[in-house]
Amino acid sequence: MKRHNFKSKSKLLEWIGEKFIAINALAAVLAIFLIFIFIFKESIPLFTDSEIQEEVTVERMTFKQEWYEGRDAKYSWQPNSEVPKYSLMPLFVGTIKAALIAMLFAVPLGVGAAVYSAEFANRRMREFIKPVIEMLAGIPSVVLGFFSLIVLASFLQSTFGFVFRLNATNAGIALGVAVIPIVFTVAEDAMTTIPQSLRDAALALGATPWQVSLTVVLPAALPGIASGIVLGFGRAIGETMIVLMASGNAAIISGNFADSIRTISATIAAELAEVVFGGAHYSVLFFLGSLLFVFTFLINLGGDYILGRLKERYQGRTL
Amino acid sequence: MTKKIIIAGFILTLAAGMVAAGSSITIKGSDTLVRLGQRWAEEYMKLNQDAVIQVSGGGSGTGIAALLNGSTDVCEASRDMKEKEHKLAEQKGITPYRISVALDGIAVFLHEENAVADLTLAQLKGIYTGSVTNWKEVGGPDQRIILYGRENNSGTYAFFKEHVLDKEDYADHTQTLPGTAAVVNAVAQDKNGIGYGGLAWASGVKFAGVKVDDTSKAVLPSAESVSEGHYPISRDLYWFFNGKPTGELQKLVNWALSEEGQKISEEIGYVPLSRKKAEANMVK
Fold it and tell me: A306: exposed, middle or buried (C-beta count within 10 Å: 0-12, 13-18, 19+)?
């Protein structure tokens, strides 16, 4: 009778299985690194190529420039002009404006819906609301962009009398609709995992249901809610299709939220298809891409840090 | 077992399909020309059963870039190639061969209820460079002019800039939209809007008559005014090839320039070339 050495056989398979899964995980991390390296590599000529530096430099991208003699210095994004102009400020301002409006719209609605769903809704209501709001996440962003271009823009213009039909508010609200499910899902999950004992204790001490929600559950769930907000903000910054269709794409800097904006993502999407490979415009667009990447990365990092501190404060945990 | 056979059969058919599609003609480029390209492709494929033609838009700039990268057979463009692009073509060993296949007028769109009916070229320039900001300066109501235009990879954008703005920049607050249809749609919904785009697209807006200067007559864009040369803002629409077209490509372009092809172009709203010009443009 043969003696099968089960031990060593299964040890080998175990080892293979482990390493295979580890490789998959590492592949994902590697992919992110490689993507960033490639994007940044294409923007390096901005710093090294002297021919490109005649057309654009970091200094010219950041500060107001007197593009023509005798005219005022200003920020201008006109890459296909006799004198190519590459000011990045209007694009930054535009991106932040859209994301800000999106968060102002999405956070109250998302967190409010989460509080209702987690605290006050009966089971049937919750089983209806949660999947429906999460369905919002399934709407393709191009559909949201189309909707805001045709319907929302006209509605907002007739209600508020905007001068520009396609503006930051229009794009911001549509972006907010895309961000709501993210904020809602994470916040709601955070609140339902708060142990019932906390709520019971507060009720036993005489708090009303509202007071329990606002003063006990919400603070305890704050790390989760904050993480949802950070994720939502990251989405709002990087979203392309909605702003491309609904924001008017005019590169201007203004404090008025009813003016058109041009975001970084829309600029890259609209212009990258036609640039001359290896030219100044090409490098600037990749530079914008890497800036977007780094910015989103920093937001997520910052969000993690805030999460850690909040968790320490409200839950006494350090991870 | 049967499931496996079905799946294998499906994959083989897909593969076969992909191999067959390898012998197709690709047409890429101008959003102004894309409707014409698609219509011509449809009709040509009806007449020639084994021809496969794929048409897509993206802008004249995109089409030219594709021609230079070798990823398309025909590039549709509503403008000529720039210096930079000619240099790049030389570097890459591509010889662009240009054939004019249709004419186009760039119409100026106004909202139907706009009191203004005509504009001079100088007024258009002032409006689009931002020096004229109110409708009352050109004879309309006291309202801010809202500018609608195209993205900077568009041939229409480039042509308008060169011929109407004399190469000056568009105003910073010009709203850029992804296609002439989007511009028309935007102007149709905005009483104070003004837009520009290819003649073939307009519905729901009115055309502005364009005057060369204060004293001349305003000309509305139409097939006749463009082909007779009366309308001030008109242009040729081109097909670019890599080298003189031969074989299938030559057949295709000669058919497009034939009476049949030009009639189709007229049916869908483009301006056909005169018979003389079309004959002259054919590839012998």
Answer: middle
List the beta bridge partners of residue B188: none
Domain A85-315, CATH homologous superfamily name and number: MetI-like (1.10.3720.10)
Token duo for residue B61: 């700039």
Do A165 and B189 lie within an 8 Å CB cutoff? yes
CA distance A29 to chain B (A): 32
pLDDT-based confidence at A8, cuts 50/70/90? Answer: low
pTM confidence score: 0.80
Measured between alpha carbons, how far is A209 from A203 in angstroms, rounded to an integer? 7
As to burial, measured by CB atoms within 10 angstroms (0-12 exposed, 13-18 middle, 19+ buried), residue B108 is buried
CA distance A150 to chain B (A): 9
Task: Tell how strand B74-77 and strand B53-58 pair up.
Answer: unpaired
**Facing residue for A274 by CB, picked from B62, B172, B189:** B62
Q: What are phi and psi of B24, to 5 degrees?
A: -105, 165
Residues B222 and B244 sit within 8 Å (Cβ to Cβ): no
**Beta-carbon-side half-sphere exposure of residue A81 (alpha carbons within 13 Å):** 18
Q: How far apart are CA A270 and CA A249, in angstroms?
A: 10
Q: Taking the C-alpha atoms of A155, A160, A162 and A166 in order, what is their torsion angle to the nearest 10 degrees?
A: -30
Partners of A88 in beta bridges: none
Dump pLDDT digits (tens) for B160-208.
Answer: 998 899 989 999 899 998 888 889 988 998 889 999 998 776 778 899 8
Structure tokens at B32: 């102004």
Q: Find, in chain A, the residue whose alpha carbon is nearest to that of B169.
A: A81
Most distant pair of Cα atoms in chain A: their distance = 100
Which chain B residue has the Cα nearest residue A90? B172
Cβ atoms within 10 Å of B69's Cβ, excluding its own:
12
Q: What angle do CA B171, B176, B179 make, to 5 degrees?
A: 135
- From residue B41, alpha-carbon distances to A79, B26, B57 in Å are 34, 10, 13
Q: How many Å apart are CA A86 and CA A285, to the nearest integer? A: 10
Structure tokens that stand for B73 in this block = 């057979």
Mean of the pLDDT values across residues B250-278? 88
Q: Which of A205, A242, A195, A212 is nearest to A95 (CA)?
A: A242
B176/A252 touch (CB, cutoff 8 Å), yes or no: no
**Both tokens assigned to A150:** 């045709």
Q: Give the integer Cα–Cα distance in Å for A191 and A173.
A: 26
Confidence at residue B16, expressed as pLDDT on a 0 to 100 scale: 60
Residue A41 has a CB neighbour count (10 Å cut-off) of 11
* d(CA A246, nearest CA chain B) in Å: 9
Q: How far is it, in rounded angstroms, from Cα A230 to Cα A298?
A: 11
Residues of chain A with C-beta less than 8 angstroms from the C-beta of B152: 78-80, 270-271
Report the range of poorest mean pLDDT among A117-121, A132-136, B228-232.
B228-232
Q: What is the pLDDT of residues A49-59, one digit of tens each?
A: 888 888 888 88
Residue A21 · residue A13 · CB < 8 Å: no
